[in-house]
């Protein structure tokens, strides 16, 4: 059996250690428990052990789970509720549902999606917090706005700046930071340049667009979250190290 409690204790220690190595406060880092493929009951267990942020990567799967978790928690008289983060690619036809289900959307990877989410949020008088997903590793299999050349590639930088300008003009969404997925590698240390790059792009965009608050850097997963924290992650998305191996 997977012992979620001892997993959380271990992860907490590792997050705190990585934070203090980089002179950061543990409180500046949100632990997002990525519960994809896991049942609602696993989410409820983690919630009862103190976790409040949960992540899913597919709208269909999340829909039932989010409802189920809410039912269980309200039946047991919980006053607090989980914060749900969408971390996976959203197909156009799922964007309305995604906007309704999630509190924060990390995976805004196109202008079209940003527009759809904004339109939906506006219709219900909301502003949806989003992160822009950047592809900083340059892998073709990855979603996200291309930023692998980041600051050295002038054309790419101008393109990114134009995209951000366009997205900033969309009502109903609030850009709160950047998200990236690092390549899967043997040695977590080799992901460091990807995380460093995301932070540099963030700093550069923040300087260019002072009206925009790009506080968050969503980066780091089970295999590389400590490196991500050392490079400035404010949100780490951790699945297997909390819930054990994926269920399908
Ligand atoms: C699955 C997933 C995670 C968590 O991955 P683990 O390796 O299980 O920690 C994080 N981010 C995204 C976007 C994911 O799809």
SSE layout:
Elements: H1 4-21, E1 30-34, H2 40-48, E2 53-56, H3 59-75, E3 83-86, H4 95-101, E4 104-108, H5 111-123, E5 128-135, E6 145-146, H6 154-168, E7 173-179, H7 192-208, E8 216-218, H8 225-230, E9 235-238, H9 240-243
Parallel strand pairs: 1-2, 1-9, 2-3, 3-4, 4-5, 5-6, 5-7, 7-8
Helix pairs in contact: 2-3, 4-5
The structure holds pyridoxal-5'-phosphate (PLP).
The site of pyridoxal-5'-phosphate has 13 residues, from β9 and α9.
What is the first-to-last residue Cα distance?
16 Å
Radius of gyration: 18 Å
Q: How would a textbook summarize the main sheet?
A: 9 strands, parallel
Coarse morphology: globular
The percent range for helix content is 40-55%
Tell me the total number of β-strands.
9
Mean pLDDT: 96
What class would the helix/strand composition place it in? alpha/beta
Low-confidence stretches: none
Task: Note the beta-strand portion.
Answer: 15-25%
Number of H/I helices: 9
Bound molecules: pyridoxal-5'-phosphate
Order of helices and strands: HEHEHEHEHEEHEHEHEH
How is this structure best described in words?
The structure is a single chain. The chain is an alpha/beta fold and 248 residues long. Helix content is 43%, strand content 17%. The structure holds pyridoxal-5'-phosphate. Residues 34, 36, 57, 87-88, 181, 221-222, 237-241 line the site of pyridoxal-5'-phosphate (PLP).
Write a compact overview of the structure shown.
It contains nine helices and nine strands.
């Amino acid at each position: 059996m997977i012992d979620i409690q001892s997993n959380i204790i271990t992860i907490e220690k590792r997050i705190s250690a990585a934070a203090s190595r980089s002179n950061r406060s543990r409180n500046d880092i949100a632990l997002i428990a990525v519960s994809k493929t896991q049942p609602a009951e696993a989410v409820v267990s983690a919630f009862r052990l103190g976790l409040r942020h949960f992540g899913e990567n597919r709208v269909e799967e999340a829909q039932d789970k989010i409802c189920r978790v809410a039912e269980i928690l309200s039946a047991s008289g919980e006053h607090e509720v989980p914060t749900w983060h969408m971390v996976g690619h959203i197909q156009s036809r799922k964007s309305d549902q995604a906007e309704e289900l999630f509190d924060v959307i990390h995976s805004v990877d196109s202008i079209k999606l940003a527009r759809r989410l904004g339109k939906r949020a506006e219709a219900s008088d909301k502003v949806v917090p989003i992160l822009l997903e950047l592809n900083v590793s340059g892998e073709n299999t990855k979603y996200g706005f291309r930023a692998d050349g980041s600051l050295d590639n002038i054309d790419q930088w101008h393109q990114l700046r134009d995209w951000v300008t366009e997205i900033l003009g969309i009502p109903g969404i609030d850009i709160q930071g950047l998200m990236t997925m690092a390549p899967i590698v043997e040695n977590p240390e080799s992901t460091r340049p990807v995380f460093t790059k995301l932070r540099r792009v963030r700093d550069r965009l923040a300087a260019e667009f002072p009206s925009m608050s790009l506080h968050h850097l969503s980066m780091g997963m089970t295999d590389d979250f400590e490196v991500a924290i050392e490079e400035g992650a404010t949100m780490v998305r951790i699945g297997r190290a909390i819930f054990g191996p994926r269920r399908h």
